[in-house]
Amino acid sequence: MMRKELLHFRVNGEDREFAAAPNRLLLDALRQDLELTGTKRGCDDSSCGCCAVLVDGVPVLSCAMLAASCEGCEITTIEGLGMAGALDPAQEGWVERAGAQCGFCTPGFLITTVALLRRNPNPSLDEIRDALSSNLCRCTGYMQIYESVRYAIEKHQRESQQRVSAPPAR
Amino acid sequence: MSAIDHKPGTIGKPMPMTDARTKILGLGKYADDLHAPGMLIGRILHSPHAHARIVSIDTSRAERLAGVQGIVTGRDAPTPYGILPIGHDECVFAVEKARYVGDNIAAVAASSAEIAEQALDLMRVEYEPLREWFDPEESMRAETDWIHESRAHNIEKEYHHSFGDPDGGFRDAAFVCEQRYVAGEVNHAAMEPHATLAIWEPDERMTVYSSTQVPYYLHRTISEVCAMPMNRIRVIKPLIGSGFGGKSEVIPLEIAAAVLSRKTKKPVKITYTREEVFYAHRGRPRTIVDLKMGITREGRITAVAARVVQDGGAYCGFGPVTVLYSGALLGAIYDVPAVRYDGYRVLTNKPACGAMRGHGTVNVRFAFESMLDELACKAGLDPADVRRRNLLDAPCVTVNGLRVTSYGLPECVEKVVERSGWNQKRGKLPYGKGIGIACSHYVSGAANPIIRSNMPHTTVNIKIDRDGAVTVYSGAADIGQGSDTMQVQIVAEVLGIRPARVKLVSADTELTPIDLGSYSSRVTFMVGNACIDAAKKIREQIVAAVAKRFSCEAEDLECADEAVYKRNDPRMRASFDDAAAMAIEFHGALVAQGSYSPPEEARGGTFKGAGVGPSPSYSYGAQVAEVTVDPDTGHVRVDKVVVAHDCGKALNPLAVEGQVIGSVYMGFGQAMQEEMIWEGSRLMNPSLLEYRIPTTLENPEIECIIVESNDPEGPFGAKEAGEGSLAATIPAIANAIYDAVGVRLNTAPFTRESVLEALKKKRGGQFDPAATRGGNGASGGANAAARRAERST
């Protein structure tokens, strides 16, 4: 058994402290040590994307990252999207356009989508397909996932326009 | 208003899933997300041999490892089980011999996964290897070393059916084709690997949370294998990360967890690795279809004959049902006057196959629809037209005794022809581009249960008490297809209330009545009807109480818009809350029970094997695929699939589209890139990296058209939507490839190598020109393709 070390993450806006062995995967640390089971394991070889999380804003596969290498990092999991009581537009899209059937791939897809839309708020269909190719879904055939992303884009654009057209606060 | 809060009257309108919010927040619990205090982790020791006698198992060193709490082998649970009453041929741990690489030998429960894995390394098993059988056609000729002693020549089951006059039909045909088709073995690859948490309770009871499509079967099987009465076992289905049939049989880890929990008297959780999922399998068998079909000059099918050999793997599983579906649904989509079927389910030393989306129908449909296309081209007819000329005159009973009550296939064909621009494109696209059509159908639930009994196929309870809250108790298992939402919608519709008022308690054997599970696309049809039945009965109680209060006739009252009111008299109106309160005052807490049993006349014929295939109703679909084939590399890109699916009535179009598109996606995977590849006993691609389910990059654009034939017995006219469209995708693509480059691919998946090989064969002159030329030299797709090919060389 490898000796455990104390690690410090800022997870979903909260400071968390826990002990983990140097070979502990970020995925297992999240699911078992921090009880954030929204992040899923779907494969053994980093090919399904179900375990995607944001580490310092960058989408990574938590099954291919050591927890110890995230010491001091800001981590966002599915549980941390759409904080402060409001859903992220991507989450709303997934509800309204049936992006989720069984929902097992959904956390990974949402994380990837949120990262995509932060980088490129108005992606084309090809750009969406390209970005989401890191994630596998076995239920939807992806078409309703594209619709869900489009819903998020449109919602985001409507909100931006409202902010622009609103009279300046005095 | 929240995102999932909707106005009353949601039938036929898109409605988000009732559990969508839980899923997008990451708060929903799947089996592997669960934890119990003191929980142990279980791991299973698998056989490295495909066929070997177990001489000895020594677990003594593993038992001494600190942290190991219990080890079990075949001796701890020797009762054989199986999904079919005629196929109780597997034990949770092999007792005498291992029958495939991956067969289960022993299991350990330990305080951590690491210790459990170390313990597996310390176990010593001595095997005596036996002759191994991998090729089904060789296996079925075996004289000795049978995989199961009771199954002579390794044939699990064979069926021979003949309807009408097949020989006469072939004599009358103007064109006859005979051809072998082979479809590769595929796996469900549900995103959630199987997981089970079994919790031994201090009062000698057990609670099992498991990734199952059928809590009822699991409940029965644990009871049998653990020799515990069902009333001491509680099976709960948490969220399921989809199944597609892969979680419909009892999977070894489910029993292993229960046996370990009983032995250690502690909670035990086992979660499969993805590799274990592939070896547990129960997917679609590799299938060899030797097909013969004849048509008249006008394109009418005169007869069809099929010999089907399914490579079933080492255990029975659903095998006999799979091979029966292949025969029952072979010709029944069209008006085929004569059908001969010889089906063989063969045992081999590989993981057992089982039910997978489109159970039994997919590979024969690939063969049938490919051959119909070939015959149409031979006769110089439009393949879409040939399908129109063979339609059933529904309502009717097919030649093999299947009752057809609603039949939207004609409209499906028209819709896909129109939307795809078929008439403008077929045979007219440039070389390398092609378009193909195919049709498919499927059952809306099996009319006969696997375990024979007169009990209803499903029962639903409804309770209303306190403040008008409606609680529905249903055994139906939502595995991601949306059955929970469907039930909420139906109960709300009948009671005239918002879906948000309805709370569903589902798939918990201690609380919910028996339902036969989520397979064979039965849930909407059967559970939907039971929900209507229960909701109507509880509505009667409410209406009776309100009628008494208003001193009017119950027949004059309506339930809608969250109220009970008198027609044409707006003053006589009670809110649903008040109406429920009146009824509770009158009756006490309101309860009602609804159930569903398929009608007698839907249960099929009396011949051996007639029990599989009959359904209260069938879905129909048609598809047109467009492809681009690169003749230099053999690469096929599927550009678009237009699919029309007759689901009777789309209770929730959002869910129906998701199901239909998802089916096409899975058919596309099987057509183009999915296959379990074996080197003898070893699976070469037991991972999602190497078993390549389609990503966003390969998947074609899929356009879904819903066709509504309003089935007379379906709930609000509905029938199945989740499986029927899968089968047509494979032949639609094959037929499009033919239109593009003039070669017929009779082996799925259609790899680049197979495309290049077929093109090479064609150029080398070995290709049979008779099979590609239109009978009267008319503008058949192949003919045009051949001409284009000649021009281009």
Rg over alpha carbons of chain A: 17 Å
Rg of chain B, nearest Å: 27 Å
- Summed up, the helix count of chain A is 5
Mean pLDDT of chain A: 94
Strand order of the largest sheet of chain B: 3-5-1-12-9-10-11
Mean pLDDT across residues of chain B: 94
H/E series of chain A:
EEHEEEHHHH
| Biggest β-sheet description of chain B | 7 strands, mixed
Which sheet architecture does the biggest sheet of chain A show?
A: 5 strands, mixed
Strand content of chain A: 5-15%
In terms of per-residue confidence, which ranges of chain B show pLDDT below 50 for 5 or more consecutive residues?
A: 1-7, 767-793
Gap from first CA to last CA of chain A: 62 Å
User: Which band does the percent of strand residues of chain B land in?
Assistant: 15-25%
Work out the number of β strands of chain A.
Answer: 5
- What is the share of helical residues of chain A? 25-40%
Assembly annotation:
heterodimer
What is the SS-derived class of chain B?
alpha+beta
Termini of chain B, distance in Å? 65 Å
Low-confidence stretches of chain A: none
Q: How would you explain this protein's 3D organization?
A:
- The complex is a heterodimer of chains A (170) and B (793).
- Helices cover 36% and strands 15% of the residues of chain A.
- Chain A is built from five helices and five strands, in the order ββαβββαααα.
- In chain A, strands 2-1-5-3-4 form a five-stranded mixed sheet, with helices on both faces.
- In chain A, strand 1 (5-11) and strand 2 (14-20) form a beta hairpin.
- The termini of chain A are far apart.
- The model of chain A has no long low-confidence stretch (mean pLDDT 94).
- Chain B is an alpha+beta fold.
- Helix content of chain B is 28%, strand content 25%.
- Chain B has a seven-stranded mixed sheet with strand order 3-5-1-12-9-10-11, with helices on both faces. In chain B, strands 7-15-14-13-8-31 form a six-stranded mixed sheet, sandwiched between helices. A four-stranded mixed sheet of chain B has the order 18-26-27-30, sandwiched between helices.
- Chains A and B meet through helix 2, helix 3, helix 4 and helix 5 of A and helix 1, helix 17 and strand 30 of B.
